[in-house]
Design brief:
Bacterial Protein-export protein SecB; 4-stranded antiparallel sheet; 4 strands; 31% helix
């Protein structure tokens, strides 16, 4: 299939950015605030996308953070930062990369701020997430999907 679109027909718009879901828990309060030991922090990232209209896509970037000392949880935070993006005039492969890499990268500074603000308002030091290479994140996801497709059932 030949892509007859020209650069002038291509369009990328950020329509809306929003927090879809936010959860913060301090299951062992107030004892959690008396800890002197540095906690082990685990961070999980995930992204998903779906078409919600003609040339309009919702992209969700989910970040889950847990801070623990031994088996005691200090805090848990989960944020789903979402955005509506208008994407038109791109080939399927280009659009897939935009939805899997560029859009989550656009959402990341917002989710980073939410995590930092939420942990600070929850009584802890602000947690600043390190930058993420979303191109590598996207490529790793594609490799996992390819490996799963090849795996016997």
């Amino acid at each position: 299939m030949t892509d007859t679109n020209t650069a002038s027909e291509r369009r990328f718009d950020i329509i809306k950015l929003y927090i879809r879901d936010l959860s913060f828990e301090v299951p062992n309060a107030p004892a959690a605030f008396q800890e002197k030991t540095q906690p082990k922090v685990d961070i999980e990232l995930d992204s998903s996308n779906q078409a919600v209209g003609e040339n309009v896509y919702e992209v969700n970037l989910t970040v889950r953070v847990s801070a623990k000392i031994d088996d005691r949880t200090l805090f848990l935070v989960e944020v789903v930062q979402s955005g509506l993006f208008g994407i038109a005039g791109f080939g399927d492969d280009e659009r897939e990369v935009m939805l899997g890499s560029f859009c989550p990268g656009t959402l990341f500074p917002y989710v980073r701020e939410v995590v930092s603000d939420t942990t600070a308002k929850g009584g802890f030091q602000p947690l600043l997430l390190a930058p993420v290479n979303f191109d590598a994140f996207y490529q790793a996801r594609k490799q996992r999907e390819a490996a799963m497709a090849k795996a016997p059932n």
